[in-house]
Amino acid sequence: MMQIEPSTRLRSVVGDKTAKVLESAFGLTVVDDLLRHYPRRYADIGQLTDLSDLMVGQHVTIMARVVSAKNYAFRNQPRKTRTEVVVTDGTGRLTLTFFQQAWRLKTLTENTVGLFAGEVGEYRGTLQLTHPDFEPVDGSGEISADSRLGRGIIPIYPATAKLASWRIEQSVALCLDGLASLDDPVPADVRAQRGLSDVRTALEEIHRPRAKEQWQRARDRFRFEEAFVLQAVFAQRRHALERDPATARPALAGGLRERFAERLPFVLTEGQKEIADVIGSDLERTHPMHRLLQGEVGSGKTVVALLAMLQVVDAGGQAALLAPTEVLASQHHRAITSLLGDLAQGGMLGGADGATRVQLLTGSLGAKTRNEALLDAASGEAGIVVGTHALIQEHVQFADLGLLVVDEQHRFGVEQRSALVDRSDVKPHVLVMTATPIPRTVAMTVFGDLETSTLRELPAGRKPIQTTVVPAAERPAWMDRAWERVREEVDGGKQAYVVVSRIGVADESEDKETRSLLDVHAELTAGPLSGLRIGMLHGRLPADEKDATMNAFAAGEFDVLVATTVVEVGVDVPNATVMVVMDADRFGVSQLHQLRGRVGRGSAPGLCLLVTSSDPDAPARERLDAVAASTDGFELSRLDVELRHEGDVLGARQSGVRSSLRLLSVVRHEDVITDARDAALEVVAADPSLDHHPALAAAVRALEETEQADYLERT
Ligand code: ADP
Ligand code: MG
Q1: Residue 601 beta carbon below 6 angstroms from any ligand 1 atom
Q2: In this predicted structure, what is the pLDDT of residue 149?
Q3: Is the CB of 356 under 6 A from ligand 1?
Q4: Best residue among 266, 307, 406 to mutate for probing ligand 1, ranked by most atoms within 8 Å of CB
Q5: Ligand 1 atom closest to Cα of residue 301
Q6: What is the pLDDT of residues 580-638, one digit of tens each?
């Protein structure tokens, strides 16, 4: 028998035809891929089929006994036949249909027991399988102890119409039988402490279990392995950072940071002070800071970041602030410039002593402004550069980049961060911020290489936002009342957002059930909000127009801004007090929480109206009620995690990580993740380069390569 290695191409083990399907359907190319294609579930012989549970469109594998089989001829086409086989599993009956396969009667005789797989269809009101794949169960009725039936448990694999579950099972068996010895990525002592089985045993037990306990034990082991390898990646990254040199950026007495702190128009919250101090001392170290600052919407992260940036400037370095959208970048630029006042007018008339310069760098700047910004960044004139992706893409040169701040981190990938960081010989300190509070497990899984700080409190004097669900279809009067409320706020000198889920320009992909920006704008202008000054903002506007609109709104030149979710992230107009979200059911829980964070940022209370036409009993309504009932972003994010699919939680950007997690759920396996993290830290601390753990080193490399490959595909 040939020696099979994990890296052996599947083609040479299972044959070209099967290998092709395995690759096209599941992306499996080598033996290890297939061995990690775990059964989706397991069926006990005897309770395999639940014919009563079948649903149209399902790919099913059932075990059943033939009750009757009969050929029918077509009336005017004597050479064509239809074979109808009725099978039962005791709980129900199902018809199998074959065309032009009259010979089936020979194998599918009465009382034959077999496995059938196919897609459940419907014909004249009865469920059926057409041309199901069929495997007879031992014809003699004898069940050998070695056969799958003898084991009593049948693994059910994720399968397709082209490749039934048991064909996959056969392929797996070929791999397992010929498999050479395997190195275990989980070290023996780590396994022993936790009573986890070794990789060989676990593979055997997950694919060919003889008892429920076996596959359960095997799953536990592989679940741990997934968490462990991922945590080892993070542990190594952290360890590497600990050894990377960075320039210390100590605080300067009487410097910009101090002078700025003194003139702040408000008192910092305890949380802000504490985290600003922590970051301050991180910056004094000679190793790069790598910190995640998460904070409730409106908790004032920008000021904390600004204090850090000024400390770096005081120490002779520069800071870059990376924002996900142009709107947000220019808002940050505006806010920072105005907060700093003459401290930001370096080299200008009226600039304070030792003042610096704050430059904006986005893709849409005119050539002149951009060159100026580029020049200031390269010469070091600009202590702070605020920008969008353009900062990464345009190979901006910094004289001495000391700190990179990434705002709204969830919009960026790990690799985009490193694109900027790796450019300099000496790594800058990195602070990433997110206003989407993430549960601990997700933080450990996605940002496992970062230290985290959390801002929980809001600045004093903030009135909580009141949120109300407006069921427009059931209660049209409430809708009228909503627009009245908007009018009242505007009459009181305040401003309002109306958020819509789509723009409404000709675009086939748009969801026509919902109200578009253009429609809503037109209706409001003609109807309930006529006479008010209504602006429009969406992602497809040219950048300068977006900016002009946002500026005008901030300056109070519009009363109402009808916008898409471009206002979701970070936009700060304290005078805005009401937000009406149209088709609110189209948004996620955390997204709604983000959106409503745009109002009530000043001293006046905020009001958020979630308009929906969804069914009162629909899950969507439940989500909206949850958002209305809680203003705690952390609680809502936990709910979000429970409601959404794993992949959405980790984010499309983290697809490399996601595809490596087959059994591990960031939602359900917090204890496994914590345990694996401790284990990985210990192993990496003792053997940082994993020289003594070659199998783990290989698994870590493989995971990093997937992540890398994902990134390359995206760019
Ligand atoms: P986020 O954390 O959501 O990014 P921002 O940094 O945009 O929040 O801050 C929201 C608003 O609160 C800004 O207008 C900011 O100037 C203001 N702010 C920040 N810290 C305080 C504070 N301690 N007291 C009062 N207002 C504050
Ligand atoms: Mg912000």
Answers
A1: yes
A2: 53
A3: no
A4: 266
A5: 2
A6: 999 999 988 888 988 898 888 777 889 999 999 988 888 888 889 989 998 888 788 77
Q: What is the pLDDT of residue 189?
A: 96
Q: What is the domain extent for residue 488? A: 465-630
DSSP letter string, 92-120? -EEEEEEES-TTHHHHS-TT-EEEEEEEE
Same domain? For 182 and 79 the reply is yes
And the tokens for 299? Answer: 């908790």
pLDDT of residue 46: 44
Mean pLDDT of the chain: 85
Choose one of 408, 429, 455: the last residue of a domain.
455
Ligand nearest to the CA of 593: 1
Same domain, 266 and 386: yes
Atom of ligand 1 nearest to the CA of 267: 23
The maximal CA–CA distance of the chain, rounded, in angstroms, is 100
Reduce the secondary structure of 369-437 to three states and give it as a string. Answer: HHHHHHHHHHHCCEEEEEECCHHHHCCCCCCCEEEEEECCHHHCCHHHHHHHHCCCCCCCEEEEEECCC
Q: What SS3 class is residue 166?
A: helix
CA distance 695 to 697: 5
Collapsing DSSP states into helix, strand and coil, what is residue 244? coil
Give the pLDDT confidence of 259-306 residue by residue, as tens digits. 999 999 999 999 999 999 999 999 999 999 989 998 887 889 999 999
Same domain membership, residue 264 and residue 375? yes
CA dist 614 → 474, 498, 512, 642, 643 (Å): 9, 19, 14, 21, 17
Ligand 1 in reach of 437 Cβ (< 6 A) = no
- 249 occurs within a structural domain: no
The backbone torsions φ and ψ at residue 177, rounded to the nearest 5 degrees and listed phi first, read -65, -35
Atom of ligand 1 nearest to the CA of 272: 23
CA dist., res. 68 & res. 542, Å (int): 69
Residue 285 CB coordination number (10 Å): 14
Compute the CA torsion angle 11, 15, 18, 20 (nearest 10 deg).
40
266 within ligand 1 shell (Cβ under 6 A): yes
Write phi, then psi, for 565 (nearest 5 degrees): -70, 10
Q: Which residues of the chain have pLDDT under 70?
A: 1, 44-49, 136-152, 161, 394, 409-424, 436-437, 505-511, 568-570, 642-660, 707-715
Task: Tell me the whole-structure pTM to 2 decimals.
Answer: 0.70
Q: Please tell me whether residues 395 and 506 are part of one structural domain.
A: no
Q: Could you tell me if 436 and 487 lie in one domain?
A: no
CA–centroid distance, 524 to ligand 2, in Å, is 30
The CA 207 to ligand 1 mean position distance, Å, reads: 54
